[in-house]
Design goal:
With 253 residues, the protein is of the alpha+beta class. It contains six helices and 15 strands. Strand 6 and strand 7 form a beta hairpin.
């Protein structure tokens, strides 16, 4: 029997069976300069993305755009070709075909946007890191309302915390696909039902965990607050192994 988990996020109840996503063998771990990603070839998007946010990292001033060397190659992008770039994103040749492609993203409806898992604003410390934030393996299909609203506010809150307290945060985020529901796709790329983010402070290993429905509703941050253990169960991912659930008040983030 499948174990069901019930989450109340705002006014939306999520009932999730563990688990949904590609099998472990379908996940390829890619090491980047600014993050590491577990890419799911079944869903053709990231299953999780992890990075460490430090005060030093946020002191960078690299401009948000694709940076090229003197030969016209995008810095830090393996097997680069100009044909891989369109509208500020880069197709990732480090994962084999079939992979998320520019043609998939040409099918993007007006209600959807490119949701960077590791945000470009966290990658301003080097041109390679900035470029790698634009790889399609770091991008999921996210509603415009979530991407520019609740998700963006959480990203900014993490940066504000690091700048204010001089703290270091370990962050893991990614999509959630709920069992029992058909997988929606944009072209060949799966459209997530929700997104999770786990945040761990280097000071006392305090933890914060969030779950946002991928819809057009504005979600208050405290309504999205949950626990690390709950996120591990609903995603089926044992991320941040060795880190115990130590929930801290939202006011401490």
């Amino acid at each position: 029997m499948k174990r069901l988990l019930v989450f109340v996020v705002g006014v939306v109840v999520i009932v999730a069976a563990c688990r949904r996503g590609g099998a472990e063998g379908s996940v390829k771990v890619l090491e980047r300069e600014g993050y590491r990603v577990g890419y799911d070839s079944t869903m053709r998007c990231a299953r999780w993305v992890e990075w460490t946010l430090t005060p030093q990292r946020l002191q960078g001033d690299v401009e948000r755009r694709i940076h090229y060397d003197s030969t016209g190659r995008a810095i830090g992008i393996a097997d680069f070709s100009p044909a891989l770039v369109e509208k500020g994103v880069i197709e990732d040749r480090e994962v084999p075909q079939p992979r998320p492609s520019l043609s998939d993203w040409r099918l993007r409806p007006d209600s959807m946007s490119r949701g960077h898992m590791c945000p470009a604003a966290d990658c301003k410390f080097s041109e390679a890191a900035m470029n790698q934030s634009f790889l399609l393996t770091n991008i999921c299909v996210q509603t415009k309302r979530l991407n520019s609203g609740s998700w963006n506010r959480l990203e900014m809150k993490c940066r504000d915390h690091v700048n204010k307290y001089g703290d270091t945060l370990t962050i893991v985020c990614g999509p959630v696909f709920l069992a029992g529901r058909p997988v929606r796709r944009m072209g060949n790329i799966a459209v997530p039902d929700a997104f999770f983010k786990a945040v761990v402070s280097s000071r006392g290993a305090r933890t914060w965990a969030f779950l946002y429905v991928n819809d057009t509703t504005s979600h208050a941050m405290d309504d999205a607050l949950t626990t690390l253990d709950s996120l591990r169960r609903v995603t089926g991912i044992d991320f941040l192994p060795g880190i115990a659930d130590n929930p801290a008040p939202l006011s401490r983030l």
